[in-house]
Write a structure and sequence with these properties.
The complex is a heterodimer of chains A (568) and B (588). Chain A is built from 16 helices and 28 strands. Chain A is of the alpha+beta class and 568 residues long. Chain A has four domains: 278 residues, Nucleotidyltransferase, domain 5 (2-Layer Sandwich), CATH 3.30.420; 78 residues, ATPase, substrate binding domain, subdomain 4 (Actin, Chain A, domain 4, Alpha-Beta Complex), CATH 3.90.640; 105 residues, Sandwich (Substrate Binding Domain Of DNAk, Chain A, domain 1), CATH 2.60.34.10; 63 residues. In chain A, the strands form seven sheets. In chain A, strands 1, 2, 3, 4, 10 and 11 form a six-stranded mixed beta sheet that branches. Chain A has a six-stranded mixed beta sheet with strand order 17-12-13-14-18-21. In chain A, strands 7-5-6-28 form a four-stranded mixed beta sheet. In chain A, β19 and β20 form a beta hairpin. In chain A, α4 packs across α11 and α14 packs antiparallel against α15. The two termini of chain A are 46 Å apart. In chain B, α1 crosses α3. The chains are: A alpha+beta (568), B mainly alpha (588).
């Protein structure tokens, strides 16, 4: 079975194409969104989703969030006794989503379409693909998030659409795509983005601005730095949500049984995030410039991503485009639904036969070259583009290069992705060493052909016409070069992690929530939470299903009441 | 791809119907597997784009009442022509470039009414606003307004007016190749307009923002170096520097980024902590005859600075004194690392220093204080006295009737010079006469330097007066005459006839009216060849032999000779035919 997955920075969602429409799959807690959080408890068991998020400020074990931000890097997070990379953490989230689908349909999914930010580079895409493989899913296609959102938006009414702009500001990444729809063709005209801009940055800005005011006596310095930061970020997230509806909100944390609070107004928040708001403009301008479309002639500006709910962001968008944006798609669901539509397309489902998607390559791809300057000096490390950014894919382009010194024995073709004129500012994708016949400089030419397919996979062919020799390089990372057995081993290592049985997920999440609330609330409320939690754990120990259900209901009702009428 | 091929690939007959083209494209696309047939996909897209271009052309041609071109290839080669009225973007039209054809564009860019005040710009890049389209009566600059100081710039004038005003300030004359730097008042106004434009750009939609970005970049580039004070603030708002080193860096931005780096370097090297600061000071200090290389300046630093500037910031080279640079470059083979400071000389200097120290130590009494540091408190009485002296100086230099207030309004930087010198003169307890002589020298220098730049009849007038001053100076001795030539400072012994002074003040007044007394511009080295006939006449007038005349012309020989030859040359030059006259006058 083929499923569509939105693997987000803060939240993930899974959807599948069923009976001619895309449907989101609820998780064990009945929610459509699963927080992209992984927690390892002291006893070594891992939790994914809401339960993990609630354990973020817990003092035992470790919780990782926002790991999508270091996807494709070597950075690892210490989780219990293991170091986990972003792709392994993502694999754990994907496994949870996979299990949700299995529970929902009774059939185990084997293949997936996974969404990635349009501005993800080759390495980040590869890492995402590997995360899917680690979770036991064959990744049929990686699809750009704004493209997926555009699919979901366009298929609402299947109307012809003049170019519209998808403004996708998620938890950690920002993408802009300009899309056009006609005759069953979904054509992406241009994409641009910022991989380091999202809702998380707004939380961080709020934290930085308010920490001094919140905690003038530096009480937070007494606890672990990472824990303090986690507490603050969680508080900032809550404050941000309140500020989306109210002109003023409270910002507060509980440290060692003591409540620290301060108030913040929407105006202050706006002033603090002005720098972030300004960064929204650049990718928009770039996408419009590349597609040669005037902002005034866009038919819609479609908002996707949870961070577009913030009034500051909406205000900025209205100003940027001189009109009100379209919020007809669900900002958190659109991408997963789009992924499911794409999966339906791949499966050639009856209701979807008619739709074709054409995308662009958001980066410039090229090779490293050297040039002789006017003074006869050799300037090295220059980037010579072969495929320009926002070229429709699949595409195949060729460039011809020649040797630069006499009797040169080989040419080293460095393959790069990026926009900087010097390769040092770009991402190296691979290197190919091509032997050439020794001749005077400039007499030996090589033909370098780049082929970029619609999944974003680059293949490089180098031909030396002088000898007729051909060299080929599929751009693969060190990780990919390892044998399938290696992958199998890593997969086993991951499965060896004690994962909580899905049936227990509800109870686990409830316990984690109760623990968090216990930490947050004070006085009487705290005492009552403690009592009910104790009753609940006792019920769990008794293994009597009826007792467990009753105790869980009691506890949930209590927490709901407390959190809804929060004294905070 | 030719249109003929395009129609064949699409499998339809030539048509102006966009819908039909899209349908054909969609049908073909769905029939192929684009991942298997990459070239086929590329060809199909190209065909679709060519067909859409043709269809759009056809619409434009039909509406324009022209015959469609039959030579279809030619149609395709024609670059994008913005379609009037409807510029539907899925036709891959470049956004319409005029404010007229796109009503939304017009409203966004300010409250201008379309048509009457049409300003062509934006995607048409660095197109100049159509200045002539503005009626003079509606020109907000018909009378001088103090700008850039308002709280809300929009309250005073709409955005388009700021853009036009800035354009006119930066590029006052369409035909000129190069403009002088902005003067004080111009810079203040330009900054004010820029502030308003930037403020506006940040509040309008992205397309308008992009247009202002392109337009401003193009204009700053064209008006360079006049536009240099505006570069930093503009670059900060549009984030031009983030584009540096990008493959697709716009040419104007690339140019401006280079200049920006130059400005930054200039700023840094002016600080004493910069490793090349000494070398910089050395090379920028104007050299005179008999100047030597500076002491304690390392040859390595000078070379590094020269090479770096020539390679990276060629536009900064004009800050250097060419004579000074020549001094360093001439001695290229010399191996000493400390310029003039070497071997025996070092010993000599050490002895002199020692003697000075000993003398200083033996002399009782307090060491003399620096007058500038020991500034006596200023009383209102003194202020009034100062003002009276300044007024007297102004009256004596520009003739009675001109007041200091007039200078302040006409030439604020000159006025600042007057007051600054007054403060110095007071602290040094100079006589009023000395002060007046000093500022007179400054005004005279500015007159001369401006005339050298402007040339024409003004240069003749200035030189006529100058030759009479030289004559007067010669009466006080040839040394006085040459001091004036070299330093443009007239010794106290030289007495000028009242008639000459009144001629000079008349001219000074004229130049003040025309705001021509700005700070002296840095002039490039100028040479001209002197014909034999001219030399003959100089010999006749001075009674000096040819060899000595030639020597004097090369700034050598005795002061008496040089002075006589300079005066004679000026006299002869003033009687020469126009072209020759100007060439000679601008090197004397």
């Amino acid at each position: 079975m083929l499923i569509g997955i939105d693997l987000g920075t803060t939240n993930s969602a899974v959807a599948l194409w069923k009976d001619g429409k895309a449907t989101l799959v609820p998780n064990a807690l009945g929610a459509l969104l699963t927080p992209s959080a992984v927690s390892v408890r002291a006893d070594g068991t891992t939790l994914v989703g809401a339960a993990a998020l609630d354990r973020m400020a817990a003092k035992d074990g470790a919780t990782a969030t926002s790991f999508k931000r270091f996807m494709g890097t070597d950075r690892k997070v210490r989780m219990g006794r293991k170091d986990l990379s972003a792709e392994e953490l993502s694999a754990l989230v994907l496994m949870a989503l996979r299990d949700d689908v299995a529970a929902f349909t009774g059939e185990r999914p084997t293949e997936a379409v996974i969404t990635v930010p349009a501005y993800f580079n080759d390495r980040q895409r590869k890492a995402t693909r590997r995360a899917g493989e680690l979770a036991g899913l064959t990744v049929r296609r990686l699809i750009n998030e704004p493209t997926a959102a555009a699919l979901a938006f366009g298929l609402q009414d299947k109307a012809e659409r003049e170019p519209f702009l998808v403004f996708d500001l998620g938890g950690g990444t920002f993408d802009v795509s300009i899309v056009e729809m006609f005759e069953g063709i979904v054509e992406v005209r241009a994409s641009a983005g910022d991989n380091r801009l999202g809702g998380d940055d707004f939380n961080a800005a709020l934290t930085t601005a308010l920490r001094g005011r919140l905690d003038p006596e530096s009480r937070l310095a007494n606890i672990d730095g990472a824990l303090a930061q986690a507490l603050l970020l969680q508080a900032a997230e809550r404050t941000k949500r309140v500020l989306s509806e109210a002109p003023e909100a409270e910002f507060g944390v509980t440290v060692d049984g003591e409540r620290l609070t301060t108030r913040v107004t929407a105006g202050e928040f706006e002033a603090q995030t002005e720098g972030l708001i300004r960064r929204l403009r650049d990718p928009v301008v770039r996408a419009l410039r590349d597609s040669q479309i005037d902002a005034a002639s866009l038919s819609e500006v479609v908002l996707v991503g949870g961070a577009t709910r913030m009034p500051v962001v909406r205000k900025a968008i209205t100003r940027l485009f001189g009109r009100f944006p379209n919020s007809s798609v669900h900002p958190d669901h659109a991408v997963a639904l789009g992924a499911a539509i794409q999966s339906g397309l791949i499966a050639r489902d009856g209701g979807l036969e008619e739709i074709r998607i054409t995308d662009v390559c958001p980066f410039t791809l090229g090779i490293e070259t050297a040039e002789r300057t006017a003074r006869g000096m050799l300037q090295q490390g220059l980037f010579s583009p072969i495929i320009d950014r926002n070229t429709p894919v699949p595409v195949s382009r060729m460039g011809i290069y020649s040797t630069m010194s006499n009797n040169q024995k080989h040419i080293e073709v460095g393959i790069f992705q990026g926009e900087a004129r010097e390769v040092s500012g770009n991402v190296r994708l691979g290197t190919l060493k091509v032997p050439v016949p020794p001749r005077p400089e400039g007499e030996v030419a090589i033909e370098v052909r780049f082929s970029y397919d619609s999944s974003g996979l680059l293949e490089v062919d180098v031909e030396v016409p002088a000898t007729g020799a051909k060299h080929n390089l599929m751009i693969i990372d060190e990780e990919d070069r390892k044998s399938p057995a290696d992958l199998e081993e890593r997969r086993k290592a991951l499965s060896a992690l004690k994962r909580h049985p899905r049936e227990d997920a509800v109870n686990e999440a409830l316990l984690a929530r109760a623990e968090r609330c216990f930490e947050e609330f004070l006085g009487d409320a705290r005492a009552i939470i403690g009592d009910r939690t104790l009753a609940f754990t006792a019920a769990l120990d008794s293994q009597d299903p009826r007792r467990i259900t009753d105790a869980a209901q009691d506890l949930t009702a209590l927490l709901d009441t407390l959190e809804a009428n929060s004294p905070l | 791809m030719t249109p003929t091929q395009a129609w064949r690939v699409l499998g339809i007959a030539k048509t102006g119907d966009v819908g039909a083209i899209r349908r054909a494209y969609a049908e073909r696309l769905k029939a192929m597997d684009i991942d298997r047939d990459v070239d086929g996909y590329a060809r199909l897209r190209e065909a679709r784009d060519a067909a859409l271009r043709w269809a759009r052309m056809k619409v434009a041609v039909d509406e324009g009442g022209l015959e469609p071109l039959d030579g279809v290839d030619a149609v395709v080669e024609t670059p994008e022509v913005p379609a009037p009225a409807e510029s539907s973007s899925w036709l891959y039209a470049a956004p319409a470039a005029t404010g007229e054809s796109d009503p939304t564009l017009t409203t966004r860019l300010g409250d201008r009414t379309a048509g009457a005040l049409d300003v062509t710009r934006g995607v048409g890049a660095a197109q100049a606003p159509a200045v002539q389209a503005i009626e003079v009566q509606r020109d907000p600059f018909a009378r001088p307004v103090l700008l850039g100081l308002e709280q809300d710039p929009d309250a005073v004038m709409p955005a388009w007016a700021h853009e036009q005003a800035l354009h006119r300030l930066l590029l006052p004359d369409h035909d000129a190749d190069e403009y002088p730097p902005l003067e004080g008042w111009e810079e203040a106004m330009a900054r004010g307009h820029l502030k308003a434009i930037l403020h506006n750009a940040q509040t309008v939609s992205v397309s308008a923002f992009d247009e202002v970005d392109n337009w401003l970049a193009g204009m700053l580039m064209r008006a360079w170096p006049r536009s240099s004070p505006l570069l930093e603030p503009a670059a900060a708002v549009f984030g031009w520097e983030s584009e540096r080193g990008r493959v697709n860096e716009r040419p104007a931005i690339a140019f401006l980024n280079m200049r920006l780096r130059g400005l930054r370097f200039l700023e840094k090297v002016a600080e004493p902590a910069h490793p090349l600061h000494k070398a910089w000071v050395e090379l920028t200090t104007p050299a005179q005859q008999g100047s030597r290389r500076g002491w304690f300046v390392k040859r390595r630093d000078v070379e590094q600075l020269l090479e770096g500037v020539r390679k990276n910031f060629p536009e900064l080279e004009h800050h250097f004194d060419h004579w000074r640079v020549a001094l360093w470059e001439r001695g290229g083979t010399s191996s000493d690392n400390y310029g003039w400071l070497s071997g025996g000389r070092l010993a000599l200097i050490a002895i002199i220093l020692l003697v000075q120290i000993v003398r200083f130590a033996l002399s009782d009494g307090e060491p003399k204080r620096q007058p500038l540091i020991d500034r006596p408190p200023v009383t209102t009485q003194q202020q009034d006295a100062d003002r009276a002296v300044i007024e007297r100086a102004v009256g004596s230099i520009f003739g009675s009737g001109v007041t200091f207030a007039q200078i302040q309004s006409r030439q604020p930087d000159l006025a600042a010079l007057f007051s600054a010198n007054r403060t110095i003169a007071r602290s040094q307890q100079d006589t009023d006469g000395a002060y007046i002589a000093k500022v007179r020298d400054l005004v005279r220098e500015r007159m001369y330097m401006t005339a050298l730049v402007i040339k024409g009849p003004l240069l003749e007038d200035v030189q006529r007066i100058r030759v009479d001053i030289l004559r007067a100076a010669r009466k006080a001795g040839a040394a006085q005459c040459m001091t004036f030539v070299r330093t443009r400072r007239l010794g106290a012994e030289v007495a000028l006839a009242p008639s000459l002074l009144s001629r000079e003040s008349l001219l000074a007044r004229r130049m003040l009216e025309a705001r021509q007394l700005g700070p002296p511009a840095r002039l490039p080295a100028n040479r001209t060849s002197v014909s034999g006939a001219v030399i003959g006449r100089v010999m006749d007038r001075t009674g000096i032999g040819e060899a000595r005349v030639r020597q004097a012309l090369n700034n050598a020989g005795s002061d008496a000779d040089q002075c006589a030859v300079t005066i004679a040359m000026l006299d002869v030059a003033l009687t020469q035919p126009e072209a020759q006259r100007q060439a000679l006058l601008s090197v004397l």
